[in-house]
């Protein structure tokens, strides 16, 4: 079955494509690890064709709506940022990309920037657009965990301000490449170790770089196992983030947008602070945002 | 010329040997990258012989005094930690290692541990011993920058307490392997960018994980160059550390033990806080500690 259009989330490390049928139905979805970080400008079209070229109709043209890092300066084509305060950029602000293959009609959705403090997002604005489809009157704060966790203040359908924390990337680097790697591999997650680490980092954020080394020392001296050690590593970094993001979440209605262990960790840590928090599964949020962009494009064409 | 003894500083990543003559003269020094992290237990003796075997006397036996990670559980032989409060461990606490080559008589000096908060050092205790040779009455705080920076409270010739910060390792990981790597390579050091970053992190330590991402965003949005970006990365991490180590240095007499840019950075940051600080070149400090150990050993043998 030939797709009506393609929804594409093209991040730094991964490429994800949904083949879309009539009425927003998903005919198929495909993934590859040919993220923007691995590609030069002229490799984007071949990478996309390698993944979905077999599904494209002969003689027809398929709209391709792209969000994420493919729109960065080092990406497929630069889609200049919208600036806060602003609604998530509509398809009207997208950049049309000329392709060699006539079957593709590519549009890249812009990201959002903030001048002070300097900050940027690419991809999350489309998740936010998807979130607002379901809850257009939401007034509060979105927390989008990931490699670079975003805290986003939403009001009246607009992104008012946002802040990015490198927590996920710090965790990955420390878990895999630091001296702590000897102490945090394997074992089961320990919720108590996580909770007390969040508490420690929130009450004394400045000592985090020392508390990190103490994970190693406690493993050596007290035989603390990898399960509680890894939970403590996560808790220290998320606690540091929650302390820094307090102006965002304190007294606000919070939605953690995500799934799995990482979303649960943020949810639990916020709930332990007495915050008003709910988790909204992030899976499909980007797709919903891309679908809205496509529908707007189609209506404009009619 | 045949050495009287060998002084060895065997860390995680490097092996450093001084060939010592009469009256503490250094005949030669040699280095290799065969650090403890790359070796299994039975590879230590061959690694040492590969580096200095040619200089050993036929038929004689040469004392070898070793400090550092070679004494860890994964090292050549475990030299159990001394526990604070304590003087830097003397040669009497060293572990004698049996070797296949009869020309070697190896002693590994123990490290120091602290139960609460859990912390360990291996190698720095010998630098501290060397420092105390020159300044036996020192009462104050040593700051030993490095991959894992140590803050050490010294009084009456003893290590009273200490704390390790992972600042150097965090800097290396973020500089080389994180998204910031695109923004911090090349350019000249900018002292102003460093100083303002230290100030920012000390006054708002909790926001460091967000300020780190802002380095990337400021490079993208404002064209901030790699020189000031790298200085800001360093300043944020050192500022976080100084905020966490404040109970160590506030109101104390401080000696930064080290050399080069990293020692200067700590010195400048502390001086900007109005702290009483001097820098003592760390080069030779470990050697001085090892020499004291050897002299004690020789006197005991007489």
- Share in β-strands of chain A: 15-25%
The secondary-structure class of chain A comes to alpha/beta
Radius of gyration based on Cα positions of chain A: 21 Å
CATH superfamily of the largest domain in chain A: 2-keto-3-deoxy-galactonokinase, C-terminal domain
Assembly type of the chains comes to homodimer
Uncertain segments of chain A: none
> What general outline of chain A do the C-alpha atoms trace?
globular
Biggest interface, chains and residues, is: A-B, 46 and 46 residues
Number of alpha- plus pi-helical segments of chain A: 10
Main sheet: strands, sense, barrel of chain A:
6 strands, mixed
InterPro entries (chains A, B): ATPase_NBD, DGOK, DGOK_C, DGOK_N
GO molecular function (chains A, B): 2-dehydro-3-deoxygalactonokinase activity
Protein name (chains A, B): 2-keto-3-deoxy-galactonokinase
Keywords (chains A, B): Kinase, Transferase
Model description:
The structure is a homodimer. The first copy, chain A, is of the alpha/beta class. Chain A is built from ten helices and 14 strands. In chain A, helix 6 runs antiparallel to helix 7. The longest helix of chain A is centred in the C-terminal third of the chain and has 19 residues. Chains A and B meet through strand 12, helix 3, helix 6 and helix 7 of A and strand 12, helix 3, helix 5 and helix 6 of B. Chains A, B: Keywords: Kinase, Transferase. Chains A, B: Pfam families: DGOK (PF05035).
